[in-house]
Amino acid sequence: MTYVPPDRDEPALDQTRQLEFTPPPTAPPVGMPTTGDGGPIDPFAGQGPAAVEYTEPAVPRDRLAFQFIWEAILLLLTLNALFLVYRREDELFGEEFGSLADAFDQHALYLAPVLLAALAIGLSLRLGAVNLAVPAVAITVGWVARPVDANLWICAGFVAAAAVVAALVFVLLVAAFRVPPWFAGLALAAAFVASAQAVERLAESRGIDSVAMWDPPNGLYVFAGAVVLAVAGGLIGLAPGVRDGLSGVKRMADGGERSAGAVFLLLGGTVMSMLLAAGAGFLMFAYTLAPSTEPTSLGFGPYGLGSASIDLQLLAFAAVLLGGTSLWGRRGGVLGTVLAVLAVWAGAVLWNHAMVEAGDASWQDDFAPLIDVGVLLVALFVSFALDRLGRPKEAVEADNGIYTQKMRPFEPADGPEGTGLFEPTLPDAVSPQR
């Protein structure tokens, strides 16, 4: 027996018809706080996150305290060396000069070009683009090339112009053609030395037979002027903005991104470095500062002969690095180079006197070149140590209570009998029964 439902006269319900609803009131009830657009405020909603202004992270700065500590130590060492020279003034200068003031006057005049060459090398190092043409410029101008004019002031103009042109070529090679700075400087040094004969031909064509040399001034004033340049440059180099700019030059010289600021800073620094080197060579020529064949206390460093001589480039690098200038750019001191030049001068004068007293076949004469190499190695160690100690501190993030460590993926341990299944141990399974 089959059940048959009765027919209904009711219409079928439309299942697709939308439900009718009443929209919420547009105005909130009386007494409820509203937002700026007229809507009610949800009393259970929390406050939104406050807007945090983005700030640039602080750039870590060099720790200059170690540089100043080393300069204080170097000051004590230099004063000690100068005191030893003062104690032995009769042995060192008695037969050559009438008084100690006269001796210091002449020695300061001979020492001024050495300090200028050291400043030129130091500026090149701080740029991060070492220019090996700097000593070659000084040597070529001072001892190799002939003057191209009888008037020394016009000759000085020719020398300055040549230095500026060499600086432009150096910057063009480094910044535009991406030539390594050491190779660009080496090429310029070779060009300066090779152009000596061409300069002589130019002098002959201009009819330069004799040049009226200048009378030597008070050497202490000339050396004091070089000291002022060294201190002023050191103080400028302490500015954080200048150090950041030097870092940009270093990155560009190493093949990094080029920027207008880095290129202009390299150009200005290289021009200044070349002018300092040319000034050192011009002082040697103008005041006839040359090595002497006679045994004299003035035969120190580049003015010596035989084993007593030190190449100007080696002496400049040793003084700059011993003063605390970095071999890798950016960092340098204020008085370090001046103190190092004075300390090396005092040691050279004392050692030169010991060599003269002992004779040519003495151990002092045999070990003199090794002493120069030893000074250079000590200078390298000082530069490396100050670089390690003076690097910026690593930023330590503050503990704000937020866990930021990444969670490691869950690796289930092998179950019993090597099935590879994880067998959880419930607390009730290991807890003592009560």
TrEMBL record:
<feature type="compositionally biased region" description="Pro residues">
    <location>
        <begin position="22"/>
        <end position="31"/>
    </location>
</feature>
<keyword id="KW-0472">Membrane</keyword>
<feature type="transmembrane region" description="Helical">
    <location>
        <begin position="182"/>
        <end position="199"/>
    </location>
</feature>
<feature type="transmembrane region" description="Helical">
    <location>
        <begin position="219"/>
        <end position="242"/>
    </location>
</feature>
<feature type="transmembrane region" description="Helical">
    <location>
        <begin position="300"/>
        <end position="322"/>
    </location>
</feature>
<protein>
    <recommendedName>
        <fullName>Ribose/xylose/arabinose/galactoside ABC-type transport system permease subunit</fullName>
    </recommendedName>
</protein>
<feature type="transmembrane region" description="Helical">
    <location>
        <begin position="150"/>
        <end position="175"/>
    </location>
</feature>
<feature type="transmembrane region" description="Helical">
    <location>
        <begin position="107"/>
        <end position="130"/>
    </location>
</feature>
<keyword id="KW-0812">Transmembrane</keyword>
<feature type="transmembrane region" description="Helical">
    <location>
        <begin position="367"/>
        <end position="386"/>
    </location>
</feature>
<feature type="region of interest" description="Disordered">
    <location>
        <begin position="1"/>
        <end position="47"/>
    </location>
</feature>
<feature type="transmembrane region" description="Helical">
    <location>
        <begin position="263"/>
        <end position="288"/>
    </location>
</feature>
<feature type="compositionally biased region" description="Basic and acidic residues">
    <location>
        <begin position="1"/>
        <end position="11"/>
    </location>
</feature>
<feature type="region of interest" description="Disordered">
    <location>
        <begin position="407"/>
        <end position="434"/>
    </location>
</feature>
<feature type="transmembrane region" description="Helical">
    <location>
        <begin position="64"/>
        <end position="86"/>
    </location>
</feature>
<keyword id="KW-1133">Transmembrane helix</keyword>
<feature type="transmembrane region" description="Helical">
    <location>
        <begin position="334"/>
        <end position="355"/>
    </location>
</feature>
